[in-house]
Description:
Elements: E1 6-10, H1 14-26, E2 37-42, H2 44-53, E3 61-65, H3 81-87, E4 89-93, E5 96-102, E6 107-112, E7 115-120, E8 126-132, E9 135-143, E10 145-149, H4 157-160, E11 172-178, E12 189-192, E13 197-202, E14 209-213, E15 216-218, E16 221-228, E17 234-238, H5 244-251
Parallel strand pairs: 1-2, 2-3, 3-17
Antiparallel strand pairs: 4-17, 5-6, 5-16, 7-10, 7-14, 8-9, 8-13, 10-11, 11-12, 13-16, 14-15
Amino acid sequence: MARDKMTFMASETPQANAAMQKLRQRYDDVGPEQANVIIALGGDGFMLSVLHETRHLSLPIYGMNQGTVGFLMNSFTLDDLPRRLQAAQRAVVHPLVMTATDATGAKHDAIAINEVSVFRETRQAAKIRIAIDGQVRLDELVCDGVLVATPAGSTAYNLSAHGPIIPLEADILALTPISAFRPRRWRGALLPASAQVRFDVLEPDKRPVSVVADNQEIRTVVQIDVAEDRASELHLLFDPEHNLEERILNEQFIP
């Protein structure tokens, strides 16, 4: 696929905007509707925003790090960008689809590229029942929260919550508790990518819960359904010497 028509997007930081201006002085920016590749300048948080914002365009995204965290980004340089784009390797990410029902009965749909996270809203721990493919697997999890992460998101919040790192091609989702109180020894589970996950909030009036799909939050929810959208593909581009699959594998051997 050709990657010769570029459009540039940058986070709001002065550093990222300065980098974008320098790139535009050297390379043509044809705009998102005419481009066949998007150059994203920022950190991982900005990359997630770009993935959400440009999903309808179905364009591959090549990120260059101009932020604090750059796990999903390539190193920044002004030189040889067309050559780097042609040599870049493609990584395919399938997002999660979430439907949350709030206390009024209203339903809210959202997409998550990294994870769907459920959190307690007050000082009291949440109580959550977990079902997989219609079968209850955990009658009651007492916790600060619980999350479902994609392989791409497994090195983000999931890793901070002591969840497993998952290679991109593993076709697995991570189900990870956040500060679980009971059962004390439950550390989560690895689920097939086809799994349908349901969280039922127990005692929602006494123990209110919110859910966050990447950066979209819905409060006072009573039920959350999460599944991977295999029909939807997001494409990231990485330099061959530092592709995403290698980064995920390498992350598992960092002490």
